[in-house]
Amino acid sequence: MLLLPLLLKATLLHLASGFYHPFHNGFYYNHIMNDNGDEQDKVDYFSGSKLVVEASKDPVYSYNGANVTLPCHYRYEPDQGPKRKIRIKWSKLRDDYTKEQDVMVAIGKTNVAFGDFKGRAHIRQAGETSWHEASLVISDVRLKDDGKYRCEVIDGLEDESDIVDLRLQGIVFPYQPPRGQYRLNFHEAEQACQDQGAILANFNQLFQAWSEGLDWCNAGWLADGTVQYPIRLPRKPCGGVHLAPGIRSYGPRHRHLHRFDAFCFSSALRGEVFYLDRLAGMTLEEAKQSCQDAGAEIARVGQLYSAWKFAGLDRCSAGWLADGSVRYPIVTPRANCGPAEPGVRSFGFPRKGRFGVFCYRER
């Protein structure tokens, strides 16, 4: 007589134990825990086979106008043969950590790209490998494509993802408008950089520029809405002499009310920057016309910095740029050409004067 109650109790305990596992579509999901009970390295099992997604651990480098592939693959462990069509979703993480930007979704051979990625993004064709292909191909890379991307693979109720970091090879330069220092709110700073063939730099780009030698005591907007500035040589007006070298930060500022300079980011060019001059020099309007007569346009600040950085443009003659500033790039410092360090020299925004001009022409 005691056997029946014991069997009933065992059955109830067995059924109750099922409620510790999420139950969906007739399949149990089971979490693998490590020895100390933490949910590190947690994986989901689906019908006896787990989905594994793996993306590039190293940053992927590219430049403006190029084509780039962000590697991402998936497989099942153990492999149980052909699967139903899975869904691949790519999204871009925003600099300010708000909602991710949709890049594209693919199901089978059908690809749908969104926003600025329309016509530029698709999934790479699969090769002969045990891994299934989920890599994203982006053509005609643009400055704002720089950043982190999420590769997400969805098979029914299973969902695994990994992150790929796309970094554009470029240069960060500080910018202030003709009307002087600390005149730009965040939105004006964005526009100012765009007007100069660039975008607002992000923190990683500013940090890279600092590590390569950028030292600038004026605070500027970054793409995430923070205000920061890079210091290599600590000094009293730049945070004090007792602080270590590094990136000084004012943190997030009000995007409409607060005003600073901007840190802009430009990448390699698809065209060329060249210099024109006349014996008597040119006014700004004459300079613009001279570039047009040469089948080009007057160069912007970001284009001059990129030509200096990536094409080795070195000219000890000052020239007009599109914003009305007068500058010249020096790769090899020498007498009568400014300071002892390489860089782009500036004469500011002269209201009068006659100079040469830097022009830009697409190849």
UniProtKB/TrEMBL annotation:
Q: Which PROSITE patterns match?
A: IG_LIKE (PS50835), LINK_1 (PS01241), LINK_2 (PS50963)
List residues of the Ig-like domain: 49-164
Signal peptide stretch = 1-18
Q: Name one GO cellular component term.
A: synapse
Q: Which keywords does this chain's UniProt record carry?
A: Disulfide bond, Extracellular matrix, Hyaluronic acid, Immunoglobulin domain, Repeat, Secreted, Signal
**In what residue span(s) does the Link domain sit?**
171-266, 272-361
InterPro entries per record: C-type_lectin-like/link_sf, CTDL_fold, Hyaluronan_bind_Proteoglycan, Ig-like_dom, Ig-like_dom_sf, Ig-like_fold, Ig_sub, Ig_V-set
Q: Chief location of this protein?
A: secreted
Query: What one GO molecular function would you report for this record?
Result: hyaluronic acid binding
**Disulphide-bridged cysteine pairs:** 217-238, 316-337
Q: Which cellular compartments is it found in?
A: Secreted, Extracellular space, Extracellular matrix
* Family matches, as SMART domains: IG, IGv, LINK
Carries keyword Repeat?
yes
Q: Name one GO biological process term.
A: skeletal system development
What Pfam families does the record point to?
V-set, Xlink
Q: Which PANTHER family match?
A: AGGRECAN/VERSICAN PROTEOGLYCAN (PTHR22804), HYALURONAN AND PROTEOGLYCAN LINK PROTEIN 3 (PTHR22804:SF40)
Which family does the record assign? Belongs to the HAPLN family.
Question: What is the protein name for this chain?
Answer: Hyaluronan and proteoglycan link protein 3
Q: Organism, per UniProt? A: Taeniopygia guttata
